[in-house]
Structure formats: C-alpha cells, structure tokens
C-alpha cells in the first residue's frame, strides 16, 4: 500500500468552500479531493478553468487553509511554515520586483530561504547558468521578456534546493524554443530525484513530461493514474518503419488481413509535430524523441 | 478577536496615556485646548492645523496676519489675531509682548494722532475718553496675562512697568513692576536702573529710593545721566529736610558727630545762603564737603558755581568750571549750563572760546 | 527506480528552518525600502518638503525672532506633513501592491512566516521615513545655522557705534538661544514617532481593506480622530460633570480604541522655547513601541487568516 511508502505530497479528503457575501450558500471549490504524489515523480494536474486546480495548489502551498481534510508535504502539514522549506513554486504569469536585477532577485529569495551569503553567491551563478540567463544577470527585470521572466521564476523556485517543485502553467505564453528549454529543465529535475507537480492547459506538453496525471473537474478528481496507462489505447499497436518499400507494406497488410479480429485502422506517413519542424527551421534544439520505456 | 485585543489594549493604555498627558500639562505642552471657544477664534484650516501638530506654525501665521492688520490700521483685527497667538502659545513671551505693544503703543498712538486732527468735539471726546484709555487697558491686560504665563521671564513685567511709567504716569506701580522684572534670571541690568528711576519719582518714598539709587550710584557699573540726576535730586531733598528741621547750630553739632555724612555740610551751606546770603561761609562749608571722598562729583560743580557767585572770584571759578566741563561734562545739568553761559557773558569770554555756544543746549 | 529516489533528499538547508529569522525580516525590510524609494509618491513628497525647507531663506523682512521662529515652524511643518502622509500612503500601498502583482505569493511560498513578512514591511517603511527625516533635518539645521549667523552679522551692523565684546556675546547668546539647539532633535524624534504609529495604523487597515485608496482614507480618518482623541478623554474624565452619560460612554469608547496622537505634538512647545525632559521622550518612545507591537500583532491576526 502507498501508505507505507513516504509520499512527497499527500492530500486527503480535501474540501474547500468559499462563502458568498450576502448569500447563505457557499461555493465549493474543492470537493473531497484526495491525491498523492510519490517522491521523484512528475505529476500533471489538469482541468478546465475554475475546476479547483489553483485552489488545490494554494492549499498545498499554505496560502489558503482547508475547510476540511489535510494536505502534507513530505510528511509535514501544509499549514506549517516549515513545510515550505522543501517547496519551490513558480506561479502563473510570474511577477517579481521590477527594479531588481536577475542576480539580485535570486539573492533576495535565497535570503528568504535562509541561505547564507556565500551560499547565495554560488547558488545564484549556478542557477543563472541552469536557466541560461547568465547574460542578463545584471539587467533589471523590467527589461526581461516573458520567457526570461519565466526562467528567472524557475530559478527562484529552485534557489532553496527544494525537493518539491510546483509549476503553474510554466510554458504559457512562451515561444517554442523557450518552452523546450523549460521542459528539458523539468526532465533534469526529475533526474535529480526532485518531485515536480505541474499544471498546464497545454496538454501535449503535459503528455511529454509527466509520469502521472490527475484530472480535476468541478472540484473533484475524476481520473488519476500513470500517463502510460491512461492514454494508451489498449487495443491498438503502432509500428513505425523507415525506408519501407511498397512491397513490404503489401506483405504486412496481407498478414494483417489474414488474422481474425485484427483491423488495420490506418497506414500512411506518420506526422512529425509542427513544433519539431519549427525548431528545426529556427535552429532550436534538436528533437528529443521521447522514448517509451 | 482582533477587536477584543484592541479593546483590552485600549483599557491598558488609558492610564498610561492620561499620565503622559498630565506630565505634558505640567511641562507646559498642553496650554492650548481644542475646545469650542478655540474653534470660534480660528478658521477651520487653522483649527485642524492646530490640532494636527502645527500649532506653532498657525501661531506664526496669525502673527503675520496681525502684522498685516497693523499696517492696515485695522486694530480690531490686530486685537483678534493677537488673542489667537497668545492663546495658541501662551508660554512664548514674544506673543504677549507684541500684543501689548500693538495695543498700548501702536493703536494708542494712532488714535492720539487722530485726535489731534479731529474737528468734531464728540469724536474728540470719544477718542480721548473712551478709545485711547481702552487700548491702554487692553495692552495692560495682555501684558499682565502674559506675565502670569511667563513667570521666569523679565520681559512682560518690564512691559507692564513701561505702560505704567510712560502711559499712566504712575511711578509707584511702574517701580513695583520694574522691580519684579529685575528679579528674573534673564533680566538685563537696565531694568533695575529703571526701577530706581521710577522709585525716585515717587512722592513719599524718598528714603527707600535713596537707598536704591545710592547703591547703584556707588556700586553699580554704569552711571547713567538719569542716575546722576536722581542721586542729586534725592540728596537735595534730604538736604532740604535737614535745613527745615534743624537750626544751623544743630547742624554744626550733627556734623561733628557724623563728619562722614557730607550732606550735612550742604545743609549748612544752604542755611548760610538762605538766611544771611553769606557766600563765603557757605563756600567754607562746601570746602569741607568736597574733602569727603564719598561725596559725588557733582558737588564739585556746585562748589565751583557757588564760588562764582562772588564776582571777585568769578574768573577763578570759571577756570575750575571750564576744566570740569571739559573732563566730566555729565555732571552739568541744564540749569547749570545756563548759569555757566551767564558767567561766560559776564566775563566777556570771546565767542570762539566759549564753552556754551548760542542757545543750543548740549 | 533505485532506493535513494524514494526518500526525500535531506540536506542541511531544509532541516534548518528557524522560527524567527532576523535576516529574513531584514531582507524583506530592505526590499521594501528600495521598492518605496523608487515610487513617485516618495519623490514628490520628499522634493516638496525639501523645497519648503529651502525656501525659508526667502523669508526676510521680519524681526529676527519672527524669522527664526517661522523657519522652525515651517520646517517642522514640512517634515510632519511628509512623514505622516508618506507613512500612511506608503504603508497602504505595500500589501495591496504585493497582492495585486502576486509578488506576495513568491514570498509566502518560501519558508517565511506571515508575521515576519508584516514586520519586514513595517520596518522597511519606518527605516525609509527615518532616513528621510534625518536628511531633512540636516538641511533644516544647515539653513538655521546659516540664518542665525547671518542675523548676528546684520544685527551687529545695525548697532550704533562700536559694540563691546560683551554686547556682542550677549546678542549672540540671545539670537542663538532661539536658533539651532539640541532640543530640536527631540522635535524631529517626536515627528518620527507619530509617523511610526500612523504607519502601524495603516498596516492594520491594509490587512483587511481591499484597496489602497480605502486603506488611505480609513487610516487618515483614524489619524485625525487620534488627534482629537484627547478631547474625548477630557469628556470621559471631565473636570466638571457637564456631559451626559451617553456622550461620556461614546467618548470613552473613542479614547480606548483610538490612539492619542496629541501627545506627540511637542514641537509647538519646543519652538516656543520649552524643553522636553528626557523622561517624557522615553515615555513617548515606549508608548510608540507599545502601539507598534499591538498593531503589528493585530495585523498578524487579521493577515494570518487572510485567504490569498
């Protein structure tokens, strides 16, 4: 049972209601929601606007208190300030103090995490390198582009070496190259064993990086599970060939037709993604084909 | 819950705050209270400013307004604005000083000059009998109120003394207030002299006046002309008393006992001059007088003028007088200068060598 | 997956959470300081006040006592205006701006307790007000210094004849006694203390108010009531029993809830020559400390519950 293994995040029977002014009834934002995220996972939280996604994240981060139910981060309740010592958060449309430079921003948040001055110095350089903003380290955030702001946001989220990183729409409004970079970073985090919770509307991107996914609708968790099992179309198989001649294809098609109960649904040229084409044409990073293991 | 905290804290802080308020009152920081009468005095902005911590600034503004009103000769407004400045900052002596000055000097002088040009008898009567005295009273009341508020300062009692001395011609009250003023720590030295002068003018207080004047004359650092004149006048008074109550022989007896008391010699001389007009005996008496080192220097002038009465000695006397005049002209009173002029014309002193030229007094 | 991935990476940074960290508070305070320094409100008020104090050199034509007094009145007035207005407006901006810009989330999702955030903000603005007041008083004292020396020279020129050394020194003493003196520092401190309480009031209001404008208005109202509060106190403990019981009750409530800001108005007395005993200054400072503490506490109670 998952009860025995230590979880990164454990949300149990979370309910959150908001009172409506001047009316007796309340708005139920989250309704008896339970989910857990294991350490080292990349968990995707998806759902339409107003489904309770942000509310759930806010409870997790201690910004709101639960009406009932519990939320813990690495065993510590979300209501405790100490629990945030292991969490890094990148909000949607992040906004930081405009007059600070990139390096100063990271340093500021580093101080808030309790880092000592020497450590902050090293960490700042390290992170600026990681998010590839070394060149803009002394430029004020007022002069940053959206993508740069997103990256500096990621840097401040990571400054305290958190074991859990929560990303709210990390690639919204970012151009494909930047988007790619962010996704690569997420994979790097995963390689380091850092747990990632990510919420996004861009479902293809969620599909690319997440291990598990939870779908929230009207405050309830309606579907949850590992990505593989969720979106695999169980009864279909895909085979992709390179340099196959039409003879071979004919042979294969005949083989299929001979089997009972097996239908050829589709054959033709598989499509690459527009993103890959774009990146190829604009000198973005080389395509990183996601291999299913 | 938070309201409860505020209320509890509120209860706790009240005694502390009232204590602080009391301490402030004691130290004179709460002289002005924002009550209804204060509200009536001020414009709304001024009232808010006064409450809000700008009381001194508001007072300064009204000070300026009073000055403007003074230039416009709007005495009603002057009075009104001075009432405001003095009630906003009652411990600031200058406010009261200026208020009294505006009333008892400026307004008063204005109306007095108006009265000089007035044809209308009724108007004249009104100005002289009602308006002018009322402004003196207003000035006096400002000064007295101010003196109460500034007990450590010499300034307001001095102003009161000035009003009594210059406006009411009441040397008794003037001297009392000058005395009070002189006792303050910050009193300049001339206040005590003013006290002495006013005291010397009081009829019936000659003994006391003489004590004060002679102390100043002998011990003080400065001998003003007024001091010299007062000294001479008071001594002359005592001489007169002596002459009237004693016979010449009694006086001679007295002088044997108290030969340090030089006034008696003057009395003797006066006797000789009065009854027998015996100048030479009077001169002898004076000779004894001026031997006394304590005798003030104006006696030498008196001596010389006495000698000059005898035409035979006039020229010699003139020589003495000339020296005196050139070295210490301050011992010559106006009447003495007239006498000196007469002597010069008697001796036919040429014009370019005359000490007293024409009728112009010194 | 290997074993080590199951356990959280335990490094020293995570386990060292301090319940109260002065360095965190200082980080927020300095951040607030720099944030406010760049705001137009600050610049406008500062330049305005500096101009006013500087303009004192234009006031001539009065007796020297009047001139020196007006100089002090106007300078203190400018400083008071600046300090009070900026304390309220600046503080009122802080939290709503952070919420609106969502920078608040970036701070509170770090291990920063909410009360540290509040205190950091308050300290930041107090520090800025203090620094500004120091700068303004330096200018004020400089102007006063030059004027009083200028006045001395003018007065000496106007004296008839050759004034003795004694006359000069007594004139100098007279002029300087109304000019630059140590007492004035007490006045500046009192201005700061009142501004500090005003900032704390604004902090409380900003934690439950929804907009900056609302916070400013309510804080200003409280500020004004605080000045009239001592009148209410007189009502409650009347010298003569002239007022009805209900009025006294209301007045009592007013006295309890609102701070008495009149006690900080010692500048009026100082300018007219009175001096404030140190014990009184200590009292005022202590009372200010109390107010800051209580208002911070109340702000925390309100803010802790706030849904963000």
What key attributes describe this structure?
heterotrimer, A: 293 residues, Rossmann fold, 2 domains, six-stranded mixed beta sheet, four-stranded antiparallel beta sheet, disordered C terminus, C: 308 residues, mainly alpha, 76% helix, elongated
Write the layout of secondary structure elements.
The complex is a heterotrimer of chains A (293), B (362) and C (308).
Chain A: E1 9-19, E2 26-37, E3 42-46, H1 53-60, E4 68-73, E5 76-77, E6 87-90, H2 102-112, H3 117-130, H4 146-158, E7 164-168, H5 176-191, E8 195-199, H6 203-209, E9 212-217, E10 220-226, H7 227-231, H8 246-258, H9 274-282
Parallel strand pairs in A: 3-8, 3-9, 6-7, 7-8
Antiparallel strand pairs in A: 1-2, 1-4, 4-5, 9-10
Chain B: H1 2-26, H2 36-41, H3 44-71, H4 75-88, H5 93-116, H6 121-149, H7 155-167, H8 171-182, H9 189-201, H10 206-219, H11 225-245, H12 248-257, H13 263-276, H14 279-291, H15 298-309, H16 314-327, H17 334-346
Chain C: H1 12-15, H2 22-37, H3 40-54, H4 64-101, H5 103-108, H6 114-158, H7 165-177, H8 183-208, H9 212-236, H10 245-257, H11 267-271, H12 278-304
Helix pairs in contact in C: 2-6, 3-4, 3-6, 4-6, 4-8, 4-9, 6-7, 6-8, 6-12, 8-9, 8-12, 9-10
Short description:
With 362 residues, chain B is mainly α. Chain B has 17 helices and no strands. Chain B is elongated.
